[in-house]
């Protein structure tokens, strides 16, 4: 018997076992690291997601998928309300919203819908109604039409709309993107229509703001609007879920006094949650502010009006007449809840509840149909005016109803 060969074989067997063990352990650690975030999202949503019963089997999931793409494989019926957030990323913006229109077979022009204060766009002299026709000297085409969503400083060619055509209006330098405060109040004024005082507020998003700054601004505005008998609330560009407290506050300002302290909305969760329902009320009183005690509210809406804006509309309907002017809303009676994974620095915000009003209704998954149609489009460019201009299409439509 060759003891040297036996000893050599034994040593090799031992080393192989050690190697397999350690290599297996390393692969296991790497596997957990690479799949950990997706597995965390999956397990969390199987408890908290509103439609958890509709989630796919774990056997069908690829846990090596990037977070946003992985979420798409989890959600029910391809819904787009749930989302993930990279907590290490910073949200930069030019600070304006635009709409692209096709102006020829191959080119587009961007119409400025609104500009946020203290933003790169405001520094570039952009304002509602102006047009961008070129970027860096090039026409806007299908190849570069997302360039206004990017980050770089840009030279833009401007135009105005006159007599049915775009007229060149020089150039401007659009500074690089930066963090821009998404101010909720875009415009406000008091108008007179048929001898009546009419409050007009363009509200862009539902946020409390740092140290409740935006809530405080709303309270101050409620005092400015004191004494109005009619009100036009412009929510045509109001997107996103926002803060429920902000919805409650604005609703408390606008609602009849008899609605104060009563149900604003009820949040209904899945059957794994305890409690399954949570009811939020309008404020009993507005500290430092004014309840306008309105009987009727005119709301300007569009296909972009969604989530918190629709929640406000639905919450007020049991207590007052809500007249919708514009175009059908998006249809999102859903609420999300943020869950943060500190280790990976990501959050997942799945739909966890639906919002119902005091009459137990949430029947706007297809959007709210309008009472009076009026939509911004190529055919109505002549009536695309600054906010507050009584000739502006949606506002003028509402004002005619007040006569």
Automatic annotation (TrEMBL):
Gene3D superfamilies according to UniProt: 2-enoyl-CoA Hydratase, Chain A, domain 1 (3.90.226.10), 2.30.42.10, 3.30.750.170
Gene Ontology cellular component list: outer membrane-bounded periplasmic space
Domain Tail specific protease span(s) in chain numbering: 197-361
InterPro entries: ClpP/crotonase-like_dom_sf, PDZ_sf, Pept_S41_N, Tail-specific_protease
Biological process according to GO: proteolysis; signal transduction
Domain Peptidase S41 N-terminal: 38-83
Signal peptide, first to last residue: 1-24
Keyword flag Protein biosynthesis: no
Pfam families per record: Pept_S41_N, Peptidase_S41
Entry's transmembrane regions: none
UniProt cross-references to PANTHER family, sorted A to Z: CARBOXY-TERMINAL PROCESSING PROTEASE CTPA, TAIL-SPECIFIC PROTEASE
Name of the protein in its database record: Carboxyl-terminal protease
Lineage: Bacteria, Pseudomonadati, Bacteroidota, Bacteroidia, Bacteroidales
């Amino acid at each position: 018997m060759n003891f040297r060969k036996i000893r050599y074989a034994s040593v090799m067997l031992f080393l192989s076992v050690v190697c397999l063990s350690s290599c297996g352990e390393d692969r296991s650690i790497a596997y957990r690291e690479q799949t950990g975030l997706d597995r965390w999202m999956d397990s969390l949503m199987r408890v908290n997601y509103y439609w958890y019963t509709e989630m796919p089997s774990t056997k069908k999931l690829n846990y090596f998928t990037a977070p946003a793409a992985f979420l798409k494989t989890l959600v029910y019926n391809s819904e787009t309300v749930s989302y993930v957030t990279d907590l290490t990323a910073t949200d930069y913006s030019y600070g304006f919203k635009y709409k692209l229109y096709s102006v020829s077979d191959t080119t587009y022009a961007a119409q400025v819908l609104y500009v946020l204060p203290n933003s790169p766009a405001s520094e570039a002299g952009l304002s509602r109604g102006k047009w961008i026709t070129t970027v860096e000297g090039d026409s806007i085409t299908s190849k570069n039409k997302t360039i206004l969503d990017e980050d770089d400083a840009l030279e833009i060619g401007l135009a105005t709309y006159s007599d049915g055509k775009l007229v060149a209006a020089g150039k401007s330098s659009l500074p690089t993107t930066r963090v821009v405060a998404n101010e909720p109040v875009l415009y406000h004024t008091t108008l007179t229509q048929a001898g009546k005082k009419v409050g007009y507020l363009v509200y862009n998003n539902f946020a409390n703001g740092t140290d409740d700054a935006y809530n405080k601004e709303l309270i101050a505005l409620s005092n400015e609007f004191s004494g109005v008998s009619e009100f036009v609330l412009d929510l045509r560009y109001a997107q996103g879920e926002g803060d429920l407290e902000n919805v409650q506050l604005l609703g408390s300002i606008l609602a009849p006094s008899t609605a104060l302290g009563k149900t604003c909305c009820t949040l209904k969760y899945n059957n794994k949650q305890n409690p399954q329902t949570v009811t939020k009320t309008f404020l009993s009183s507005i500290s430092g502010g004014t309840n306008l005690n309105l009987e009727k509210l005119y709301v300007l809406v569009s296909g972009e009006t969604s989530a918190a804006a629709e929640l406000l509309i639905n919450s007020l309907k049991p207590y007052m007449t809500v007249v919708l002017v514009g175009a059908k809303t998006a249809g999102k009676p859903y609420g999300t809840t943020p869950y943060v994974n500190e280790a990976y620095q990501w959050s997942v915000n799945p739909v966890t509840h639906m919002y119902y009003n005091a009459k137990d209704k949430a029947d706007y998954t297809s959007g709210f149909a309008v009472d009076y149609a009026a939509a911004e489009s190529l055919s109505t460019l002549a009536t695309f005016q600054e906010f507050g201009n009584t000739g502006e299409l949606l506002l003028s439509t509402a004002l005619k109803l007040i006569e």
